[in-house]
Design a protein that fits this description.
Chain lengths: 297, 363
């Protein structure tokens, strides 16, 4: 199918495309990443970077109690990703195959993209007057006598951080899954039912395997952005929710560039590890090669 | 369920099915029955309601109202598609792209919880029937259109349903392959002894394959009968035109005779003709005389004889096996075929047609 399209559009055989892409991508993305990794092997003395290779920064990273921060970051990122997947998949399924009209789909998609037009900080700061001790929710709870005293856990704890991160990352999870489910041919679903498949079998045997590329995409986008989240923990965590990105920003304000480099490298390594584990775990259930190959035919 | 299916002589009984898509009536009180082991074809143009009817039978569409819907004697009107003892061969094949040929065919058995060895044996059997056993490990993307068609067939028959529904299964194949598959389908039908319900828009496919044909139009059954009946004895102008009657001439009914015979006047000439809808014709009313191109024969003189229509030759098209001759008559343009090359038909003055080949249908 893709080959036919290429021929029809006369795009040539694309022999130059891959080297071109690798070249540009190496220059713009891989090279800075390598520089970052290299920097993590330098150290800082008197606010100056000393360009002498050593493991000092890495030792510092693991000996200064960052382990707890790493665990918290991982826990929050994974929780947020799981919650988004648990809500996002059924939502995407409903949107793509739930007999929704074209108009409903267009409206829902437009609503999902609205957050991308507004700055992250402004989107998040509005939660403060809502969740605050004297905020909208507490006022409501007190006025309706649901609560007798202001609920302090609503702000500056892990709860609002989780809550708002789930919201900000929701479109990241839903959009790739929606795209993947949307292109599944309806007659495949009909064929499964026709052969005796219950709704559960349709979901497990047809929709799930065929939408796996989208699910993986959603997880990568959400997990990556949640691991690197900085605005939510610092604005709604009130200094009580210390995550890796907070460490990065504080190292940055102390001009400790090697530490920034080491922390960032660490986050990238963590993400890569998580995705590797995820892929290996999923491979037990689905053969990826088949799914991706099936998209070509 | 299986027991009821083996005992009942009627495999499908659908009575008084009504279905609407919004204001559009897709099925207008349609009733269809199929006997056990029958090859029944539902013929019609797109939008005639034939595919809707198939989806109603399979359960993929819930009709607006149902008089009765029985498959193998079992009432399935309120059963979902998954619980009906019938499978469908889809026009687009609808093969699962993430499964191999074998897995596709085995899928229905897997759902029914058939044990592994038996599943393997029956999949082999089904793939053998469609002559694809050597490609059981292939991916769907690696198969040609004809092979995909066979996989779809194998997948549908492997569960041994009471009814096999085929939704224009040959539509996407090229002509040569379609021709071969027609023969193969007929043989498969004979081997399996299963009841086939076949949807097509091609009258040629319907005529060559079916035991019985149902011609649909605007959500209604226009005519039902054996292929010969549809071919030679249309009941309406639409049925005649759809089944390929090239000449539809306006006429007036003079007398109705016994035994389905009727005397009509075409452009002043008297024709003795037959009809299967004598009750729908009344003496003195306008009707249509339908004659196939190959049933007209050229005549040298335009005498006053019965079943003779004077005409003037116009264009002539050489078609290899025959010559397509056009002519102009007082009843309108005529088309007929001349098979014998030696025959000097260039200077004919009339065409004649035997009584059996002249069919009168209501206007």
């Amino acid at each position: 199918m893709m080959r036919n399209l290429t021929q029809r559009l006369n795009l040539g055989d694309g022999r130059w495309a891959l080297p071109c892409f690798i070249g540009v991508w190496s220059l713009l993305v891989i090279a800075p990443l390598v520089v970052l990794i290299v920097f993590s092997f330098f150290q800082t003395q008197y606010f100056m970077t000393v360009y002498k290779p050593s493991l000092y920064t890495w030792n510092d990273l693991f000996s200064s109690g960052r382990f707890e921060v790493t665990l918290r970051t991982l826990r929050i990122a994974l929780t947020v990703t799981l919650i988004d997947l648990a809500i996002g998949f059924p939502f995407a399924l409903w949107l793509a195959k739930g007999k929704t009209s074209r108009t409903v789909q267009a409206i829902a998609l437009a609503l999902l993209t609205i957050p991308f037009f507004i700055d992250l900080s402004s989107r998040i700061i509005v939660w403060r007057p809502i969740l605050d001790e004297h905020g909208l929710i507490n006022n409501f709870l007190l006025a309706t006598h649901i609560a007798s005293a202001p609920q302090h856990w609503l702000l500056y704890t892990e709860w609002p951080v989780h809550f708002v991160m789930v919201i900000s990352n929701f479109p990241m999870m839903v959009l790739p899954i929606y795209m993947a489910i949307n292109v599944i041919d309806d007659t495949l679903i009909a064929a499964c039912q026709d052969l005796g498949g219950s709704p559960f079998r349709v979901l497990r045997d047809i929709i799930l395997p065929l939408s796996l590329p989208g699910i993986l995409g959603g997880i990568v986008f959400t997990l990556g952005s949640a691991l690197a989240a900085w605005v939510e923990p610092s604005m709604l965590g009130g200094g009580f929710v210390d995550v890796l990105s907070n460490s990065i920003s504080s190292a940055y304000s102390a001009l400790r560039v090697p530490m920034v480099a080491a922390l960032s490298t660490f986050v990238v390594v963590l993400l890569a590890l998580l995705l590797l584990i995820l892929t290996l775990a999923m491979r037990r259930f689905v053969r990826f090669g088949e799914v991706f190959r099936s998209m070509k035919s | 369920m299986a027991k009821a299916a083996t005992q009942s002589a009627t495999m499908l009984e659908a009575r008084d099915i009504v279905h609407r898509y919004g204001p559009v009536v897709a099925l207008d009180h349609v009733s269809i029955t199929a006997a056990r082991g029958e090859f029944l074809t539902i013929l019609g143009e797109s939008g005639s309601g034939k595919t809707t009817m198939l989806r109603v039978i399979s359960g993929l569409e819930r009709p607006h109202s149902v008089g009765a819907l029985l498959i193998g004697g079992e009432d399935v009107a309120n059963l979902p598609a998954a619980q009906r003892n019938c499978t469908t061969v889809f026009q687009s094949y609808a093969l699962f792209p993430h499964m191999s040929v074998e897995e596709n065919v085995a899928y229905g058995l897997k759902i029914r919880g058939v044990p592994m060895d038996e599943r393997r044996r029956r999949v082999d059997e089904a793939l053998n029937l469609v002559r694809l056993h050597q490609k059981s490990a292939r991916r769907i993307g690696q198969l040609s259109g004809g092979e995909r068609q066979r996989v779809a067939l194998a997948r549908a028959i492997v569960t041994r349903p009471a009814l096999l529904l085929l939704d224009e299964p040959l539509g996407a194949l090229d002509e040569r392959l379609r021709y071969d598959m027609q023969t193969e389908l007929v043989e498969l039908h004979k081997t399996l002894g299963m009841t086939f319900i076949y949807i097509t828009h091609s009258q040629e496919e319907a005529l060559t394959m079916s035991d019985r044909i149902l011609l649909m139009r605007h959500g209604r059954v226009e005519q039902a009968g054996r292929p010969e009946e549809l071919f030679d004895r249309p009941v309406s102008r639409f049925a005649a035109s759809f089944m390929g009657f090239e000449n539809l001439l306006p006429c007036r009914v003079e007398h109705k005779l016994a035994g389905g015979r009727v005397v009509v006047r075409v452009a002043g000439r008297v024709f003795h003709a037959t009809t299967v809808v004598q009750d729908a014709l009344s003496e003195g009313s306008d009707a249509v005389l339908a004659v196939r191109a190959e049933r007209f024969a050229p005549a040298d003189v335009a005498s006053d004889a019965l079943n003779l229509l004077p005409c003037r030759p116009t264009e002539r098209f050489y078609r290899g096996k025959y010559v397509d001759q056009r002519a102009e008559s007082d009843a309108g343009p005529l088309r007929f075929r001349v098979w014998d090359k030696a025959n000097s038909f260039a200077d004919f003055a009339a065409v004649r047609c035997s009584e059996a080949d002249c069919v009168v249908v209501p206007q």
